[in-house]
Amino acid sequence: MIREFLTALLTPAPQWVKRMEFLNEAIAIEARARRCRDDWAPHQQHTKEAILDAIKACKQHRTVLVVGSGACLDIPLAELGDIFERVLLIDIVHPLKAKRHDWNHVVHISLDITGQMKNLYENPEKLPEMLVPTIYHDSSDIDAVLSVNLASQLPVIPLKYLVHIKPHDVIDLNRFTKNLLLAHFQWLSRFTCATALICDKAWERLDGSGTVIETDDPLFGLISQKPTREWYWEVSPRHETGTEFSRRNRVGYWSNFRLNDSDDLTAGKKMNCS
After folding, report:
1. Distance CA 186, CA 189 (A)
2. Which residues of 126-160 are buried (b: 16+ CB within 10 A; e: fewer)?
């Protein structure tokens, strides 16, 4: 606990990022990764392999944009640094440990990829109208965009914040969640370079015998494109939960991800699905 407290104290972040618990969550994930190192290792390796597979589609190797880089535990940073002239690591907050490297062309950028979280923090009584972000769409030197273990997590902290600060109707919260996901998927789909989506496609709860007793779809069935690969992530084994139950995620990797017309529930830029 002392280690986490000092890390929170020393990690730079805007006040709204701290108060919405984005910083604490990043620190907690890093701590859980240490406790569950062996259980998480296969997932981290699969993710790194998927990233290296995705960039094979690059025609040039100028800039790679990695969204959801976090502590870089699942990012093949050395390989990306060798291949690309510039590596942009995007996250709402970056753990201090992730910045300890000697590559000048690897840049950490603190950015809310949704463009809506500060607005939500300041106006929790009104759910924001989601627009498709245009971040980096006008950058001509980007040759790969990778969304890494992020999409299913985008609504998690905002929903926790809203429940505690300003209760909303469940229907409205579900609509907000879908809109948030769709905006991210559309943002990724509008790049013309190589793209990859890596994220949870199912959350499972298992009993002591390893039988799945509960399954949730964090993507709300919004993607019809078949994953290039799938694997399991033992995200909360029994020694972590401290109970007879465990949790695992089924992760999908979509190479050259594109949101199909049948998946696009929006009209123009405004997100308004039910």
Report:
1. 5
2. ebbebbbbeebeeeeebbbbbbbbbbbebbebbbe
Nearest-angstrom CA–CA distance, 256 and 169:
36
User: Hey, what CATH class is 2-255 in?
Assistant: alpha beta
pTM above 0.70, yes or no: yes
- 241: helix, strand or coil: helix
Q: Where are the domains of the chain?
A: 2-255
Residue 97 phi, psi (nearest 5) = -60, -35
Question: Is residue 264 over pLDDT 60?
Answer: no
The predicted structure's pLDDT at residue 78: 96
Q: Which amino acid is at 186?
A: Q
| pLDDT tens, position by position, 199-235 | 999 999 999 999 999 999 999 999 999 999 999 999 9
Counting Cβ atoms within 10 Å, is residue 170 exposed (0-12), middle (13-18) or buried (19+)? exposed
pLDDT value, residue 9:
75
- Please give the Cα distance from 183 to 181 (Å, whole number): 5
